Amino acid sequence: MTREFSIRSVRAIGILVLALVCLPALPRGAAAQDAAAFINNLGQQGLQVLGPSVPQQQRAARFRQLLDSDFDMAEIGRFVLGPAARTMSPASQQEFQPLFRDYLVQAYTTRLGQYAGAPFRVTGTRPNGGETVVTSQVVRSGGGPIGIDWHVADRGGRMLVTDVVVDGVSMKTTHRNEFASIIQRNGGQPEALLPALRQQLAQLR
Predict the structure, then answer these.
(1) How does the average pLDDT of the chain come out, rounded?
(2) Which domain holds residue 32?
(3) Does residue 1 lie in a domain region?
(4) How far is it, in rounded angstroms, from Cα 17 to Cα 22?
(5) What is the number of structural domains in the chain?
(6) Per-residue pLDDT tens digits for 160-179
(7) In angstroms, rounded to a whole number, what is the distance separating the alpha carbons of residues 134 and 125?
(8) Is 2 among the domain residues?
(9) Which of 55, 159, 197, 202 could form a disulfide with 38 if both were Cys (CB 3.0 to 4.6 A apart)?
(10) The domain spanning residue 43 has which CATH number?
(11) Tens of pLDDT along 100-132?
C-alpha cells in the first residue's frame, strides 16, 4: 500500500466484499421493499460468481460488471473528486473514472477469499432523504460484529448503490478525503490523482 491509501479504507473494502458474497435473502414485507430486493439480488449474484473458488480474473470481471450495473459510479466518482472536479480537465476526468473503477475492482476482488463464510445478517432499512439505507451486520472470526449500511437510490426506476458505510465509515467520503490529501500534497493539481491510482493498481495486480 502507498501512504495515499489508508489501512482503514482497505479494511472497509474487504468487509464490503464479504457482504456482497454472503448477503442472504430479506423477509417479505420489509420496509423499502424495492431497495431490499435490489440488495438481495446483488448479494445472490455475489454468492454465485464472487466466491473464493472462482478464479480471480473471473471474479474481477464479474465485480466490474456489478460496479457498472449496480453502483452509481458516475455520482460516486464526482463525489470523491470533490472540488477538484471543477478544475480537472475533461480529458483527465474521463481518464479518472475507469482508473477509479479498476482500483476498486482490484482492491475488492483480491480480498474475497479471506472473508468467505463469515456470518452476515440484514438488520433493517430506513429512509435517508431521497435514498433508502439497508442496514446489516457481519461477524468477523474472533471479533465483534461490524455494521454495514448500504445507501440505495432510485435513479428513474433503477436502483443503484451510492455509498457503503462500514462500521460508521463512509467509503466514498474516505476516498474523497484521501484524494484531497493527494491533490494538496501535489500543489493543488488534481491531475496528480491519475499517477497515484496507476501506481496503486500496479501494486494490487
Answers:
(1) 78
(2) 7-204
(3) no
(4) 9
(5) 1
(6) 999 988 788 898 999 999 99
(7) 4
(8) no
(9) 159
(10) 3.10.450.710
(11) 999 888 877 765 445 555 666 677 889 988 899
Half-sphere exposure of 107 (CA within 13 A, CB side): 28
- The owner of cell 474516505 is 174
73: nearest Cα among 99, 49, 53: 99
Residues 200 and 77: their CA atoms lie apart, in Å, by 17
Cell matching residue 2: 502507498
Compute the distance between CA of residue 190 and CA of residue 186 in angstroms, rounded to an integer.
8
Amino acid letter, 30: A
How much is the CA Rg of the chain, to the nearest whole Å? 17
Q: What is the pLDDT of residues 10-60, one digit of tens each?
A: 555 655 655 555 554 434 333 357 887 787 676 555 545 666 677 778 878
